Amino acid sequence: MDYQSLIVTYEDGIATITINRERALNALNKVVFSELRHFFSVEGPAQENLSGVIITGAGEKAFAAGADIKEFAGLNAEKAMALSQYGHEVFFMIEQFPKPVIAAVNGFSLGGGCELAMACHMRIAGAKARFGQPEVNLGLTPGYAGTQRLIQLIGKSKAMELLLTADMIKADEALSLGLVNHVVEQGEEVAKAKEILMKIGTKAPLAVAKVIECVNAYFDKTADGFEHEVKSFGLLAETEDFVEGAKAFVEKRKAVFKGK
Ligand code: CAA
């Protein structure tokens, strides 16, 4: 598909999605949302040999500076709830995508931008990345699940502080809080994300998808994550890749997985 606000490229089985609104600090407008939705529901699932996805922002200043505040004009309760619900749905698609999705955070990651990064399975920050949930400055709460995922990632005390003060934190602090997985030199975020995805790409794809499901199930109040793990373990035991993985171990060679 020809995207208007995303650039999607493929290399080595990895899709890199660049939010391409540099002049607006890659603010997440309706077009970005509908294009992300298209990628994660149509284009991504249709790729046969996809092993992972990287999301980053165009330019050197921002990953995404939040929801597009200029689209907030004329919001009422009904429209705001629909906007929030839609954002939740798209970010759930990312969180539940069966291939690993890594945010390569190259600059400001604020409000909806921080929420997008948190919906990804991992986050790599460049040294100049800045994180925050500044919605209380605008008279709002976060709307794309920032109040929920920030707690999941860094715990209630620090999440409460960041959400209430709207403080912006630097990459090193984000690392010490567990908000990001790695901090790298500025400009190296995508390369580091790719290195991790290449490693995961050598593993059994169905097992990778089940790990994502099981980890997500822990946070799903309607699911029993322990039960989900038992079932996943059972399902995977009947896959060709499990037979190959165990055989390769015994034969002291690298397994060749087929995703079957
Ligand atoms: N929405 C729309 N436009 C934005 C934007 C946003 N979230 N953030 C930045 N921009 C635009 C600016 O309006 C400006 O455009 P113009 O040149 O046309 O005026 C351009 O990007 C550059 O921004 P600044 O001149 O402000 O750049 P700066 O370096 O002085 O400041 C910044 C950078 C600190 C990130 C500042 O832009 C800022 O505070 N942005 C808003 C951050 C924010 O409040 N995000 C939360 C949004 S609400 C939300 O996300 C709710 C939700 O959960 C659903």
Keyword list:
10 strands; binds acetoacetyl-coenzyme A; four-stranded mixed beta sheet; 260 residues; alpha/beta; 2-enoyl-CoA Hydratase, Chain A, domain 1
Describe this structure as you would to a colleague.
The structure is a single chain. The chain has 260 residues and is α/β, with parallel strands linked by helices. The protein has 2 domains: 6-200, 2-enoyl-CoA Hydratase, Chain A, domain 1, CATH 3.90.226; 205-250. The protein has 10 helices and 10 strands. It has helices at residues 30-46, 77-95, 112-119, 146-154, 156-165, 171-177, 189-200, 205-219, 225-237, 240-250; strands at residues 6-11, 14-19, 52-57, 62-64, 101-105, 108-110, 122-126, 130-132, 169-170, 182-184. The protein has a 6-stranded mixed sheet with strand order 1-2-3-5-7-10, sandwiched between helices. It is globular, with a radius of gyration of 19 Å. It starts with 5 loop residues before the first strand and ends in a 10-residue tail after the last helix. The model has no long low-confidence stretch (mean pLDDT 97). The structure holds acetoacetyl-coenzyme A. Acetoacetyl-coenzyme A binds next to β6 and α3.
The CATH top-level class label of the largest domain: Alpha Beta
Number of helices: 10
Distance between the termini: 28 Å
Cα Rg:
19 Å
Shape, principal axes of CA atoms: globular
Please indicate the count of domains: 2
Structural class: alpha/beta
Give the helix/strand layout:
Layout (H helix, E strand, L loop, with lengths): L5 E6 L2 E6 L10 H17 L5 E6 L4 E3 L12 H19 L5 E5 L2 E3 L1 H8 L2 E5 L3 E3 L13 H9 L1 H10 L3 E2 H7 L4 E3 L4 H12 L4 H15 L5 H13 L2 H11 L10
The protein binds acetoacetyl-coenzyme A.
Acetoacetyl-coenzyme A binds next to strand 6 and helix 3.
